[in-house]
Design a protein that fits this description.
Helix content of chain A: 40-55%
Helix content of chain B: 25-40%
Number of strands of chain B: 11
Strand content of chain A: 5-15%
Strand order of the largest sheet of chain B: 1-2-3-4-5-6-7-8-9-10-11
Radius of gyration of chain A: 22 Å
Order of helices and strands of chain B: HHHHEHEHEHEHEHEHEHEHEHEHEH
Shape of chain B: globular
Largest sheet of chain A: 3 strands, antiparallel
Structural class of chain A: mainly alpha
Order of helices and strands of chain A: EEEHHHHHH
Oligomer: heterodimer
Number of strands of chain A: 3
Largest sheet of chain B: 11 strands, parallel
Strand content of chain B: 5-15%
Largest interface: A-B, 53 and 58 residues
Distance between the termini of chain A: 56 Å
Distance between the termini of chain B: 29 Å
Structural class of chain B: alpha/beta
Number of domains of chain A: 2
Number of helices of chain A: 6
Radius of gyration of chain B: 25 Å
Chain lengths: 168, 376
């Protein structure tokens, strides 16, 4: 398994770049690939020692139990090519997520999107979609703790505009 | 909904779920505002672009708050599908929805078994909203029995990009309606005319001349069609992957023998093809990519034909020989020899010529079979 580091240059000039890795060490020589379009440098390490090793991620704004459950999924899911192992990992994570406050799941969707982990994203998005399913507008507000900032007239206008979407 | 995750999910008790999922904290702080105005809308946008949310839920979200509304209204992927399946007053609903500019790139309209959709609505659509359907690719009019050739002319005129057209169980539409389709829509790849008894060989001729890139055709129960029309399809639509000839008993080997021209065929339904003989099957055996083959009630078929299929269609996954009394254990042995790795559905109910056809005996020959009955 290779590890990839992408460095992107922003507006600030940098004189030096320091790379830090947790976990596995590597004897392999990195060869940087520069992308002139977005000024990023990609360095790929091929490290056979890290084949079944996933670096634990830290997830902002969630409790340690949740972070642990997500990391357990990443470890298990990444550890095997066997479909049954991966499905078990997904089922475990799904069961865990179903027991969490929806606010946590919302944070997790954002996290998964930011790190571009599509397996996580699928699970978290589906959970939120299941919670929203067939709820009334008021129920959605209550569940997600969203303030209604429409005036009654505004809200009525939108309802009228979309009456076609609701069963009689 | 993506069924890739094999999870068990029991339907939540509504009130319990609201209590359980309700977030802690109720004072309106800066954090709450950030949450309400930025975090949740961003996340809903991500979700709605990854999953296809039910239409009703999307509209509910529009009403939740102005920030959510703003975020979703500007999310183009949400406004590509209009789904009115089984709804009443569907014609009026469709026109009301299309009066909203955000639906003017709509790609798919579903009116399956909707009530209250008539020619007049499609006429208004063409006269007032034709710009809105310029990107429409998929139109489902299944069960819309009031639509006639006039309605077909109107909607196809407004939908030049149409690729998938489905009008199951409509007995009013005739060859004239199909002539409007082929004149107005040049890019059809998937056509479902199942149950449209008004279609004749004239339609098949027009389809074959206009849609050389057709991939899927369903003419179930189009009983006016004959060998003549079917042959045109086979000769000209050589890209066909799926052909459904369910309950069409008047075709003969004259047409069936041309099936070998459809080299990309993966799905072939010949249920009720009472004139199909082993000669026809020898040709079908040349379609190497067939995965699904329905020979229910093909009563003239014998071992010879099925053995040829076994040798030729080595990727076969689904086979029904339901009701065929002329096949014996010999054909099962051949199928097992060539296709036992791939066959997962095998229906040999009523095949009294096959002695060993209990579940256990079949599993001996076909270890991966999960489904033993497709025809009821």
């Amino acid at each position: 398994m290779s590890q990839t580091v992408v460095l992107e240059q922003n507006a600030v000039e940098t004189q030096s770049i320091t790379l830090k890795f947790d976990g596995c060490s590597s004897d392999a020589n990195p060869s940087p690939i520069v992308n002139p379009e977005n000024q990023s440098i990609t360095i790929k390490f091929d490290d056979q020692a890290s084949n079944h090793h996933t670096i634990p991620v830290s997830i902002p704004n969630v409790d340690s139990e949740t972070e642990a459950a997500v990391n357990e999924f990443l470890r298990k899911h990444g550890s095997s090519d066997e479909e049954s192992v991966r499905t078990d990992a997904m089922n475990d994570l799904w069961s865990f997520i179903e027991r969490q406050e929806i606010g946590t799941v919302v944070v997790l969707v954002k996290f998964a999107s930011d790190v571009k982990n599509f397996e996580l994203l699928e699970i978290f998005c589906q959970r939120v979609a299941d919670v929203i399913a067939k709820k009334t507008v008021e129920e959605v507000r209550e569940i997600f703790n969203i303030a209604n900032d429409f005036t009654p007239e505004e809200e009525q206008a939108i309802r009228d505009e979309h009456r076609w979407a609701f069963e009689d | 909904m993506d069924q890739g995750t094999q999870r068990k999910c029991s339907p939540p008790d509504r009130k319990k779920e609201i209590r359980k999922t309700k977030m802690g904290g109720s004072d309106v702080t800066m954090q709450q505002q950030l949450w309400s105005r930025e975090t949740v809308p961003k996340v809903m946008k991500i979700i709605s672009s990854r999953l296809r949310l039910p239409q009703r839920d999307i509209i509910s979200l529009l009403l939740v708050s102005s920030s959510l509304n703003r975020t979703l209204v500007t999310s183009p992927s949400l406004w590509l599908v209009l789904d009115f399946r089984e709804m009443n007053n569907a014609g009026d609903r469709l026109l009301a929805a299309l009066s909203l500019a955000r639906y003017h790139n709509v790609k798919q309209i579903i009116l399956e078994f909707a009530q209250g959709i008539e020619d007049k609505h499609l006429g208004i659509l063409r006269n007032q909203f034709s710009g809105a359907l310029k990107n429409l690719e998929h139109l489902n009019l299944n069960g819309c029995q009031k639509i006639s050739d006039y309605g077909i002319e109107a909607v196809t005129k407004a939908s030049p990009s149409l690729k998938i057209f489905s009008i199951y169980w409509n007995v009013r539409v005739t060859d004239v309606g199909i002539s409007h389709l082929v004149n107005n829509c040049k890019h059809i790849v998937d056509l479902n005319l199942s149950g449209c008894k008004g279609m004749s060989d004239k339609s098949l001729k027009m389809i074959s001349e206009s849609y050389q890139h057709l991939e899927s055709l369903d003419i179930t129960r189009c009983i006016k069609t004959t060998d003549g029309g079917l042959q045109q399809i086979m000769v000209k639509c050589s890209g066909l992957k799926s052909l459904n000839l369910y309950a069409l008993s008047s075709f003969t080997d004259v047409a069936y023998k041309k099936l070998l021209l459809l080299v990309h065929l993966r799905f072939l339904d010949l249920c009720g093809a009472q004139n199909l003989s082993d000669e026809g099957l020898f040709s079908i055996a040349k379609c190497k990519n067939i995965r699904t083959l329905n020979l229910t009630w093909c009563v003239r078929v014998t071992d010879g034909g099925v053995i040829a299929i076994a040798q030729g269609c080595t990727s076969l996954e689904y086979l029904s020989l339901f009701g065929i009394v002329g096949v014996t254990d010999k054909c099962l042995e051949a199928l097992s020899k060539f296709c036992s790795n791939t066959i997962t559905t095998l229906d040999v109910n009523g095949c009294i010529g096959i002695k060993k056809r209990s579940r256990e005996e079949l599993l001996q020959l076909f270890p991966y079979v999960r489904c033993f009955k497709v025809h009821s």
